[in-house]
Structures are given as structure tokens and as C-alpha cells.
Design brief:
37% helix; 387 residues; Aminopeptidase; alpha+beta; 2 domains; 15 helices; globular; 8-stranded mixed β-sheet; 24% strand
């Protein structure tokens, strides 16, 4: 953009002090504590870049980017269930690129709802600026990029301006699930009391089935001591995941715990001293985020592990006085049964080459929205899913 100087920074330690001042609480994935943790233990195979826009000596925009390898099949179930044009695009991209093609995401794959861009309020055209920052980062990478992914939260109301810049909108992406926390609940029992009897009984039954579970909070050193166990519990979850191109492994969790302290809670669930699950949640702003769950499939049914973890997330959100509990994009129906609501927003994609970009457009127009049965567990109609 005219009058702005764009800079790309490779290492989080090299970011200027003005970065922290601009991003403030604007995005969890741009916060220096998150960047420091990712620099200390980045997810396997991924890399990070940071783009800055300067107006003279004033920093007016900051954006973070995450590049992850994009092998055929690396998008997991989302790719396996996709229509043939989508599968064909990824195979064609893999065949045409020299070296492993990568996906470049504004923000971070571990937090797909968090904005990857923060701008000063007087930036005249944030969509154009984001495009220029993205291209500067793409050109700086020493690996081919087959897919650029931007999203509505990166730009807020200005997101539609990406279409004239050549991005394909995708309106069929998996929704994220959010539970609005009613301030009148006050505690977990009041949350159960707001439910219809069928769902209240389900919750109580799950709690009863899981009453033998012991919960052990882990600090950073304990996370590393249990690294093999944690990664082993995560493996079957990743096998079923819709998208699992950059799993958060135990080493990264330990780095995040050191950076975020008590805001990040890592809990190991034990049955008779045998680890059977773990759960990670993060407090930031007015919300609690259920970040990560790993579990033993064989004990999931008998102990209702997953339901108990979700209810523990709810209890933490209520106790913390949070406004929202964010639960991500998997297991939509079961999250709906605890009161979470689907929140959809468009994603914007492009391929840097015009031939594959046209093939990508053909593919995304044939993508199907995920189908699931939405549940309504509360007596009163649910509130909107929020911003």
C-alpha cells in the first residue's frame, strides 16, 4: 500500500517492542507469550513468519502466519470425505510442486478462530494490506505454497473485500462450537438446572460413570515427564480428526504452559492410577477455550471420558466468570448436546498460480457443508453464538 513499508520477520525474538503494544489483547495467537512458546517448540514440520506494516516509525499492522506441510491426505477426514474435485486438487498440487507443498495460514492452525491480523483503526484498506502482507510472507518462504488461507476473523467486517483481490470464499467450512455462559448460572449445578430433563439426566449419568476418575493438574515439567503418555493419548484422536496437519505435541504444550502459566490448564485423567485421558484449556479475555483432548478409546465409552472433559470445561468457564466457552470444530453433535452452538464464518483461499487457482475455485464450489443433528438442551431458546 502506498506510504507503508512492509517487513517480514522470521524469529519471534526479533519482533520490535511495538508489536506487543499493537496486538495487546487483540489476538491470542499474536501475543508474545504464544509466539515465544511456538518458537521454543514449534509443531513438527511447521514454520512461522511475522509481517509488519510501518508508516514511518509507527507500526500500523501486525500479522502472524503459520506454514504447514500439505501432503495428500494430510487434511484427514475433511479431505477423505470431500468431493472428487477437492481430492483431485490436492493430488494435482502435490504432483506439480517441486518439494512438499505447504499451506500458509494467517494466524495459527491451533487456533483457527483467532484473528491473525491486528491493524491500527486508521488503516484505510485492511483487506488489501493483509493480501500484501501475505504475499510478502509467501515470497519469503523457502518452500512452495499450494494453498493460502485467510478468514473472516482476520478482517472483521472488511472480509468480503478479499473476493475482488482474487480469493475464493468458502462458506461450507466446519463450524466452530461455542457455549454462551449465562451469568445467572453461578455454578455447575445451576447449569444442569437450566437443562431439559433428558439432557440433565445424560449429564448426571456421565458424571456418575466417570466418578472414579482422578484429575491431576500438570505443570510444564510434569508435561514433559508424561510426554510419551500424552502424545500416545492424542494419537487416536488425530487419526479421527477432520484436520490434523499440525498437532500440538507435549513439548509444545510444556512451552505454552511456561509462557501462559495458570491461564493454561493441563489435566491428566487417571483411572486407578492409569492415565486414560488429558485435556487442555486456556483462559483469555472473556472466554475459556477447550484447546485439546487426548483419550484412551477403549475407556472412553465406559467412563464417558469425552463428556466428562466437556463438562469440566463448562465448569471452568462458569467458575471463571467467562462469557464464552469455545470448543473448536470437532464432535459437533455431542458439543451441541451440552449447549454449544455452531458459529460459521467464511474462509478465503487461493493458489498462487493461475491454473491451480482456477482448479481450486472449481473444487471449493463443490464442497459440502458438514451435516450433524443440532441439539437444544436448555429450556429457554439459546442465545446467538456471538462474534
Amino acid at each position: 500500500m502506498s506510504g507503508l513499508r512492509v517487513e517480514v520477520v522470521t524469529g519471534a525474538a526479533d519482533l520490535p517492542a511495538a508489536w506487543a503494544s499493537l496486538v495487546a489483547a487483540g489476538s491470542v495467537v499474536l501475543h508474545p507469550s504464544f509466539l515465544a512458546a511456538m518458537a521454543a517448540a514449534p509443531p513438527t514440520g511447521s514454520s512461522h513468519r511475522y509481517a509488519l506494516a510501518w508508516q514511518g516509525q509507527r507500526l500500523v499492522a501486525a500479522a502472524g502466519f503459520h506454514a504447514v506441510p500439505l501432503y495428500p491426505g494430510s487434511l484427514g477426514q475433511a479431505e477423505a470425505d470431500a468431493s472428487w474435485p477437492v481430492r483431485a486438487f490436492f493430488r494435482l498440487a502435490d504432483w506439480l510442486h517441486r518439494g512438499t507443498p505447504h499451506m500458509l495460514v494467517c494466524g495459527h492452525m491451533a487456533h483457527t478462530d483467532a484473528p491473525g491480523l491486528v491493524c491500527a483503526p486508521d488503516v484505510p484498506d485492511p483487506a488489501l494490506l493483509l493480501h500484501e502482507l501475505t504475499e510478502a510472507v509467501r515470497r519469503s518462504l523457502d518452500r512452495p505454497v499450494a494453498l493460502v488461507v485467510l478468514k473472516q476473523p482476520d478482517l472483521g467486517p472488511a472480509h468480503d473485500a478479499l473476493v475482488p483481490l482474487g480469493y475464493h470464499p468458502v462458506h461450507t467450512a466446519q463450524p466452530t462450537m461455542r457455549l454462551p455462559i449465562d451469568p445467572s448460572w453461578g455454578g455447575f449445578d445451576a447449569y444442569l438446572g437450566a437443562m431439559r430433563s433428558k439432557y440433565r439426566q445424560r449429564a448426571r449419568s456421565a458424571r456418575k460413570r466417570g466418578r472414579s476418575l482422578a484429575r491431576q493438574p500438570l505443570d510444564a515439567d510434569a508435561i514433559l515427564r508424561h510426554a510419551v503418555t500424552l502424545d500416545g493419548l492424542l494419537a487416536p484422536v488425530l487419526d479421527r480428526a477432520d484436520v490434523a496437519v499440525a498437532p500440538v505435541e507435549a513439548a509444545t504444550l510444556a512451552a505454552l504452559k511456561r509462557s501462559w502459566g495458570d491461564a493454561l490448564r493441563v489435566v491428566l485423567y487417571r483411572e486407578a492410577d492409569r492415565p486414560v485421558a488429558y485435556a487442555v484449556s486456556l483462559a483469555h479475555g472473556d472466554r475459556i477455550e477447550g484447546m485439546l483432548v487426548g483419550l484412551n478409546d477403549a475407556r472412553n465409552g465406559p467412563l464417558k471420558l469425552y463428556q466428562n472433559i466437556l463438562y469440566d470445561f463448562v465448569a471452568r468457564a462458569i467458575d471463571a466468570g467467562a462469557s464464552w466457552l469455545e470448543l473448536g470444530r470437532t464432535a459437533l453433535e455431542i458439543k451441541s448436546a451440552i449447549g454449544a452452538q455452531p458459529h460459521r464464518f467464511p474462509v478465503y483461499v487461493r493458489h498462487p498460480g493461475w491454473v491451480l487457482h482456477r482448479a481450486l475455485g472449481f473444487a471449493v464450489r463443490r464442497m459440502q457443508a458438514p451435516a450433524f443433528t443440532r441439539r437444544h438442551p436448555f429450556h429457554a431458546p439459546p442465545e446467538p453464538a456471538g462474534p
